[in-house]
Each structure stands twice: as structure tokens, then as C-alpha cells.
Amino acid sequence: MQLSRRKFTTLAATGIAGLATRTSFAADESNAAGWIDAHVHVWNPDTQSYPLDKDYKKADMQPASFTADELFAHCRPEGVQRVVLIQMSFYQYDHRYMNEVIAAQPGIFSGVAIVDHHAENLTSRMRELADQGSRGFRLTSGGGGAKVWVDDPGMSTLWSEAAKNGWAACPLINPHDLPAVDTLCEKHPETTVVIDHFARVGISGQIDPEDLANLCRLARFENVHVKTSAFYALGKKQPPYDDLSEMIRRVLDAFGPERLMWASDCPFQVQGEHSYAASISLIRDRLDFLSESDKQWLLRGTAEKVFFG
């Protein structure tokens, strides 16, 4: 459900996060490199060479295949030349396939890995994955919710190591997890944080004002970023996704364009009535409140800074 102008004005007037100062995108050689998709999963149908984690079976792979070449068929016609790969849960802690894709085309891909934050070798494992091309570590709240992270020693180590090395903590969370992530940001203000998919605000079909306010409250931490992504799963869940425009405007005003990054969440974005073109078009073509500088940040600059710097 699209936020009414009255509701949006009320949220903006609360001063929870304040209006972010817009920063113009600085033109340099990177402008010629094309857009960046900040969130894509890839997998290979060959489960003999790349076995699935014990909690998954081949029928869970929907679609059955989504390789780099299959991704390029969708993204390159839209001007996307670089991609941040997110380790797929099918493979859990086995990063062989993602790392092979990264290594095969240097400079095209960056990675976000999954680690067991309870493992004794957590620090060395994070460094190993970073050496293989990962620049972030995905945190999935699961059944217990993110509140269990707040006092967890392993989670504290992960956030501290990320801050020390310039890596990102990347929470995949639901709206009710936002207070816990807020607390972690208070404990670790130096850690770069990238919130996936607006923290799934709007996944119920409606953009809840309180959820959106909690997301925007994180803007007071200067190292927190938000992915404007997974349009197929939020709000009315129908292209061209214009009902998401007020949520995008709200996070833009809170965080500024230099802390927002667009992402498709392929291959899920290219199923059924949804398409890659519809996702990128919302940011590139349809939102009249985005300046050309804003678009440069959302479609390239922010992801470049965080994942390709």
C-alpha cells in the first residue's frame, strides 16, 4: 500500500533520522564501467560437482539453474556490467561455486559470504573468504530473530573484524528485527552495514509507517547503507512497482543517495510477470524525484564504494 502524502509528511516531520544532505556524484573513470547490481544469487545445476547443503534438495533449486551467463542475458542489455554475488543458502558455507565465478572474470564480481559466527576459526575463515573476493558477510536472522545476535560473542567478533578490515555486515532481516540491528550498530558504529531489501518493509503487502520509521532511524549511524531491492516481493508486488516510490523517497531523504544501492535480487526478480528491466527501470527511469547524481549513486557509486573499493 502506497504511503499517503499525509502519512509521509508526518513521518518526515518526526525528525527520527533527519534529512540527509545530498552529495553529488563525482565523475571519474568509473562512470564508464556501467551499472552495478548489488544483489544476485547464482547456482549451478550440477549438484555432483557442487553438492547442496544437507537441509536442501535439488527440487528446492527454483529455477533449476542460474549461472553467470544466464544472469548476463538479463543484466547486460540494461547496462549492468558488475555484480555483487550473495552466497546462496543452498550451498551454506561451501563457497566453491561463488568463488569460481568471481575468479573466472576478475573485476566483474564481488562477493558476500556466509560464515558460522559460532565457529572457532571465524576470524581466519572471514579472512580466507575475503582473499577469494568477498567484501561482506551475510547475517540471516532465521527463526530466533536478530535479537539473539545482540549479546552473542561470535556476532560481536564478526562485526569487529568487519570494521577492522573494511568489510560489510549484511543483515537479511524482517522489520521486527530492526531494533536489534539498531543496538548492534550502537555497539559497533565503525562497522559498515548494508541492510538487504529495505529490511523487507512491505513484504506483507503494505508499507507499515512504524516499520519504515524504524528503518530510517538507522540513518543516524553514518556507516549504515540500504539496498533498494527485491521489488517483486514488496508492496503490491506488481511491476512497474510505482507503489514503492514513497518508501524509496523516504529512505533517500533519511540516508542520502550515497548510502543507497539498487539491486535486483536475481533470479527471483526474473520469475513470472517480473523482469530485470522492470526492476532497474524504477530507479533509472520512473522516479522523477531522483536527480541524475542520485541515480549514479544508487546504480553504481554506493555499491562500488562498499563492495569494489
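That was protein one. Protein two is written in the same sequence-then-structure order:
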Amino acid sequence: MGMQNTLLDLNNHLFAELERLGDEGLKGDRLKEECNRAKAISAVAGRIVSNAAVILNAKKLDLEYGKNEAPRIFLGDKTDKRLLEEES
């Protein structure tokens, strides 16, 4: 079974972590552990957001240029023998 998380879920996780970090009763080792967890969550969240931006930009290019007329950097070089074989 695959994960079905969304960017809204990510937003909720980030706010939940912010609330945990704002807990005035969190001190000492528990605070250090929560800070480490927050750093890990932030790193993963950053990757997810970057990936979403790439997907969005690819979709924008697709909508702007169409699948057959996209810039080579988007589709690859059509003179590449491997690409020609895949299209056959």
C-alpha cells in the first residue's frame, strides 16, 4: 500500500512540529530531541517542496509547449538513438 500524503498533510505536520517546539514544558534532553526531530522533518519537507516545484514547472512547460514541442532540456534530445527506439 503506497502513501497518499499531500502538501496539505505536510503543512499540517510542520505546524504540529511547531506546536511541539513551542511547548514551554519541553526542556533539557527532551527539547534537544525535539529540535533534532524538527531539523530532520524540515530537511525532508524541503525536499518534498522542491520536488513538488519541479513537477509543477514540468507541468507548466507541458501546458505551454505541448508534449511534442517542449524544449530539448525537457524532453531530451530527439537525435538520441535511445529516444528514437523508445518511440518506435
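The mean pLDDT is 81. Keep this in mind for the problem set.
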